[in-house]
Amino acid sequence: MYNYSSSDFQNSPIYTKAIEILVLSRSISQYVQDDLSTLKIDGKEDSNIYFSGDIIYQSESLAPEIAKAELERYSDNKYKHIASVKRLTNRLYKNCRRLENCNSNGKEYVSILRHELKKFKQLQYVWSLTL
Length: 131
Fold this sequence. Notes:
This protein has about 130 residues and is mainly alpha-helical. The chain has helices at about 5-10, 15-35, 50-70, 75-100, 105-130. It is about 80% helix and about 0% strand. The longest helix has 26 residues, at about 75-100.
């Protein structure tokens, strides 16, 4: 059995893509948040602002879960981390769809993140088969 050092998995395509998604989601969230943070005419806040925070939280969790799966010795535990990455990716994708329907000038950039998530899902499929 091959033991990964900490730098081995950090050079893997899926880990690199997870970091790219994190950077992109932070930028998009900050851009969208400016539009969504203003109060509506009736004094209520836009409920879509929470989705911008959710994409950051979920994208921050991707890379650590990938690392845990890579470093785990037992296959049962590996599959738990793989399932966690899959759930995070699906939630992230769903929240991107919600942000695309919000009233913001930055919603066009959310489609870029969704496109990157599609690439990530393809990497994720191959990665899960190789573990």
